[in-house]
């Protein structure tokens, strides 16, 4: 019986095919990816988080200067 009659697809074995479906990774690409991760993890995210918290504090401070301190009005 042929492969088509057995219900399984015929396999095309070629010398150019590889067992690993992933493309080869260039060493320069890997180093660049690690450098970008470290830049994000060590520099950009901490600076961004400090800027967000500082910006929120500034908004609260300015709103209290304009609207007065929080709480009920003095009697």
UniProtKB/TrEMBL annotation:
Listed Pfam families: NapE
Keyword field: Membrane, Transmembrane, Transmembrane helix
Superkingdom of origin: Bacteria
Spans through the membrane: 37-62
Keyword check for Secreted: no
Positions of the UniProt region annotated as Disordered: 1-27
Classification via InterPro entries: NapE_TorE, Nitrate_reductase_NapE
Name of the protein: Periplasmic nitrate reductase subunit NapE
Organism: Azospirillum oryzae
